[in-house]
Specification:
By secondary structure, this protein is an all-alpha fold. The protein has helices at residues 13-24, 31-68.
C-alpha cells in the first residue's frame, strides 16, 4: 500500500465558507413549543394514571364481589 499524504492548505477559503453556511443553518427552538410539549405529556401521563387506577379499583371490586358470593 502506498502511503498517501494529503496536503492541507490552511489558507483555503472554501472551508471557512462552509463553516459560515453551517452556522447559518443552526435552528433555534421556541421555548413556548417546548413548554406546550411538556404540558401535553403531563396531561397524557395524568390520563394514563387515572385509567390505570380506575382499572385497578374495578378489578379489586370485581374480585371482592366474586369472593363474597
Amino acid at each position: 500500500m502506498k502511503n498517501q499524504r494529503k496536503e492541507v492548505n490552511l489558507f483555503d477559503v472554501s472551508r471557512t465558507k462552509n463553516k459560515s453556511i453551517r452556522a447559518d443553518k443552526i435552528t433555534t427552538t421556541d421555548i413556548n413549543i417546548l413548554l406546550n410539549r411538556v404540558r401535553l405529556t403531563k396531561k397524557t401521563e395524568f390520563k394514563k394514571k387515572i385509567i390505570h387506577l380506575s382499572l385497578l379499583i374495578f378489578l379489586v371490586s370485581l374480585v371482592s364481589i366474586f369472593l363474597l358470593i
